[in-house]
């Protein structure tokens, strides 16, 4: 098989691009300044928080990564806290390479060893709800959350890979 003019085999992992990176402050700023409107609303209206502050603080947390897409743009940041709470904030770049981004998000989720991954998503954030379904999360219940009493949906995934 040929890939970009080079002979390759299906199991040649050196030819698999890596769009998941360790977080940097520069990436946090880029993502915060370019958030999808639905992600910004979820953080600001749903949690009453500043996205830039949250993302900048997350750079130092273990379990945080940032995603890029093939054109080099920052696609988002994600992380898993010690208690298994998973989160992700994205930029519009995810729409430029939706299949690549979804596969990379799946690779990130599948790499986690926590027995339970969980959180809640703003019901209005339909792109993230679709992604969560693709990633194998189950939706549990709706509830009002945050300063504006928005409807959020609790989700979780039981992980078969534990240390």
Keywords:
three-stranded antiparallel beta sheet; 5 helices; 9 strands; alpha+beta; four-stranded antiparallel beta sheet; disordered N terminus; globular; single chain; 163 residues; Aminopeptidase
Chain-wise SSE layout:
Blueprint: E1 2-3, E2 6-7, E3 20-21, H1 25-33, H2 37-47, H3 51-58, E4 64-68, E5 74-80, E6 86-90, H4 98-111, E7 116-122, H5 126-134, E8 138-145, E9 150-158
Antiparallel strand pairs: 1-2, 3-4, 4-5, 5-6, 7-9, 8-9
Helix pairs in contact: 1-3
What does this structure look like?
Helix content is 31%, strand content 29%. The strands form three sheets. The protein has a four-stranded antiparallel sheet. Strands 7-9-8 form a three-stranded antiparallel sheet. It has a two-stranded antiparallel sheet with strand order 1-2. It is globular and about 40 Å long. By secondary structure, the chain is of the alpha+beta class. The protein has helices spanning 25-33, 37-47, 51-58, 98-111, 126-134, and strands at 2-3, 6-7, 20-21, 64-68, 74-80, 86-90, 116-122, 138-145, 150-158. The model is unreliable at 1-16 (pLDDT under 50). The chain has a single domain (18-158), classed as Aminopeptidase, CATH 3.40.630.30. The protein has five helices and nine strands.
